[in-house]
Amino acid sequence: MQFTIQKSVEILERTPQLLEIMLGGLSEEWIENNEGPETWSPYDVVGHLIHGEKTDWIPRMEIILSSKADKSFEPFDRFAQFDEGAPKTLTQLLNEFKALRKQNLNRLRAQNITQNDLLQEGRHPAFGPVTLSQLLATWVAHDLNHIGQISRVMAKQYEQEVGPWKAYLGILKA
Amino acid sequence: MQFTIQKSVEILERTPQLLEIMLGGLSEEWIENNEGPETWSPYDVVGHLIHGEKTDWIPRMEIILSSKADKSFEPFDRFAQFDEGAPKTLTQLLNEFKALRKQNLNRLRAQNITQNDLLQEGRHPAFGPVTLSQLLATWVAHDLNHIGQISRVMAKQYEQEVGPWKAYLGILKA
């Protein structure tokens, strides 16, 4: 499937509401349990998505579309959500993510990105040159990656409880 | 995490709305593309979930809780959604799933299931004896399995478009 801004925004704009439906009002165990040491709970994932809105996708888009000579990205801290100071409730995090995503989609729309813009490049700290369309496609796939992760983390809470059906549930083997 | 009816219903009751937010109004490519030959699109997955509501979870619960001597389950047809006659729109499928899930949760609540009921057994065609709590835990994990699958199928539509970021997106390797 070919990248377009429109098909990308279709996914990006619904993620905040999807996470609210998926997680809002659940028992704490569903929200706070993870897959074992060094793994993330659904709560942690929402914190990670917030950090991406603040420092990754749109700031990097603006670097690519700027007139700067050096279009190097800042490295992204995948663990920043664990250093955020006073702990917030899940509801606070979901609201913060919703507000940031809305602002960021407005910043995206305000650019009126052309086909030529999509080919412009920035410099990723590990990969070197990457295009704007790769960055924006990754924003979309990254949302879906973490929605899939949340589904898996939650499913694993019932790994023992399903008994022999574990054999039929691919998500428990991932 | 230990199985309870309450924690299970928390997940089961939100799945129809989650699928509406996740899929309603998307471009056809997001809904109809799959992962390659013999794999399912998001549209196919919703059809499969409908078939489960009709023939699997609650009908099997009622077999377990019946006074029949033979508590063997009917085999479940994992491909029934491809034999359903006139094709339906995604909106029709989502509405049908929502209505069936609501009815089935009412049937679940009407049983006033006790701790003793949860230990009652039926006979699975492949596994032999399984308990009611295993069946109901599987209903929950099965929803999450297919939400994860839909996320993965959609993410894979951008597998090429993300360029080098593929290396960081676990969902594209699943």
From TrEMBL, chains A, B:
SUPFAM superfamilies hit by this protein: DinB/YfiT-like putative metalloenzymes
All copies of domain DinB-like, residue ranges: 12-150
Matches recorded under Gene3D superfamilies: dinb family like domain
Coiled-coil residue spans: none
Protein name listed in UniProt: DinB family protein
Organism: Chryseolinea lacunae
